[in-house]
Amino acid sequence: GENVEQHPSTLSVQEGDSAVIKCTYSDSASNYFPWYKQELGKRPQLIIDIRSNVGEKKDQRIAVTLNKTAKHFSLHITETQPEDSAVYFCAAVGGDNAGNMLTFGGGTRLMVKP
Amino acid sequence: EAGVVQSPRYKIIEKKQPVAFWCNPISGHNTLYWYRQNLGQGPELLIRYENEEAVDDSQLPKDRFSAERLKGVDSTLKIQPAELGDSAVYLCASSLAESYEQYFGPGTRLTVT
Description:
Largest interface: A-B, 23 and 23 residues
Strand content of chain B: over 45%
Shape of chain A: globular
Helix content of chain B: under 10%
Number of strands of chain B: 11
Radius of gyration of chain B: 13 Å
Structural class of chain A: mainly beta
Number of helices of chain B: 0
Structural class of chain B: mainly beta
Distance between the termini of chain A: 41 Å
Oligomer: heterodimer
Order of helices and strands of chain A: EEEEEEEEEEE
């Protein structure tokens, strides 16, 4: 089955700086890669996603890049703000036999210092 | 539009007791998922429903866990009997049938003492 690795596990940045979180996946047939933001005690919220036919997608201060050859994808947050502080999870949907099953990475705790 | 609704939000039980969680998905979402999230980890899929049919339950510990979605809308997840290691947040998510986008409920935080 699919295996997703996420790094770093914690990330501390100064307000206004950029933050980058990286994930690798194992199933070359995976074709959908969402990112979720989870604040303490709250539900995971879908913030951006990318499909395998696209190399980059941007939505205001957040962007995601995908390198299918290397099987890795990254989340980029620019001009970070204290409200960006949360745990971020990457995920991947596996190949043809996986249905819509999401395999999550271990999470990155992002702390933005004011 | 209302999001995914779960209840209860918190549950504390003693080991060996039964417990049940309820989920109401987003209206029109045919696919429903139950995940377990251990502290400091990502969610792990327990079971996936397409309408009332369980199409992926390979990760569900069937000796003590059961789930149902009788009318293809609401779903319940049951644990009987609960063990200490079952302490976790149980998340429900839903999606449209042909969509990858999953939307999560607030979860039920279970503590087994």
